Amino acid sequence: IFFGISLPFGEKEQKQQFSALVQDVLKKDCTFENIRALQENLQELKEQGKEEEKEQLLSKSTVKKLLEDAGAGEEGLAALYDEALGENDSAFYTENLVENTLQVQSDNLQLKIKNEVSAILESRIIDGKEYLLLPVSDNLEVNGIPVRRKLADNE
Fold first, then answer.
1. Residues near 62 by beta carbon (within 8 Å), at least 6 away in sequence
2. How far is it, in rounded angstroms, from Cα 98 to Cα 46?
3. How many Cα atoms occupy the beta-carbon half-sphere of 52 within 13 Å?
4. How is residue 137 annotated by DSSP?
5. Please, which residues have CB within 8 angstroms of residue 63's CB and are 6 or more apart in sequence?
6. pLDDT 10s digits, 98-150
7. Which of 14, 99, 96, 93 lies closest to 56 in space, CA to CA?
8. What percent of the chain has pLDDT over 70?
9. Mean pLDDT of 21-40
10. Nearest alpha carbon to residue 14 among 68, 80, 89, 91
11. Following DSSP, what letter does each residue of 44-67 receive, concatenated?
């Protein structure tokens, strides 16, 4: 608080708070598809802000709509939404929440995909295991070395 006015949190804090809010609200619905959809919707809001040449400030109702569109249930929204955002109606800037790439990480993997083509990555359950599927393009390289596709051998 500065002269009685609440100041917005910095970029890093906003990202952390938003991530925690999403995890708490979505719970079991915090799936790859739902998070990708949330990121796509945030990217659209960011682009709208650029077109209007102003920073896109997310109101509580916009955050609620984003979370609903990402699969949040009513109980998750009701319990944590007001608690997390409180009286502040404009806690987040889209610029602080949107990355230029969709980043997927695990203990053994780090994958970055441009937002505009992130829809090519899909999640499927095969034989009881969850997989992320990525179609292979003609220009596949591993550590800078072009590799042949197995499909090309069969053609």
1. 45
2. 8
3. 10
4. -
5. 21, 81, 85, 91, 92
6. 888 888 898 988 988 888 888 888 889 999 998 989 887 777 888 889 887 66
7. 93
8. 82
9. 89
10. 91
11. HHHHHHHHTTS--EEPHHHHHHHH
Whether residue 100 contacts residue 115, with contact meaning beta carbons closer than 8 Å, is answered with yes
DSSP for residue 132: E
Q: What is the mean pLDDT of residues 1-20?
A: 69
CA distance 79 to 72: 12
Q: Give the length of the chain.
A: 155
- The pLDDT, as a whole number, for residue 83 is 65
C-beta separation of 94 from 80 below 8 A: no
> DSSP secondary-structure letter at 5?
B
37-44: long-range contacts at Cβ-Cβ below 8 A with a sequence spacing of 24 or more? 37/69, 37/70, 37/71, 38/66, 38/67, 38/69, 38/70, 39/98, 39/99, 39/102, 39/115, 39/118, 40/115, 40/118, 40/119, 41/66, 41/69, 41/70, 42/66, 42/94, 42/97, 42/98, 43/98, 43/115
**pTM for this predicted structure:** 0.76
Structure tokens at 99: 């990355």
Pairing relation of β-strands 101-105 and 122-126? unpaired
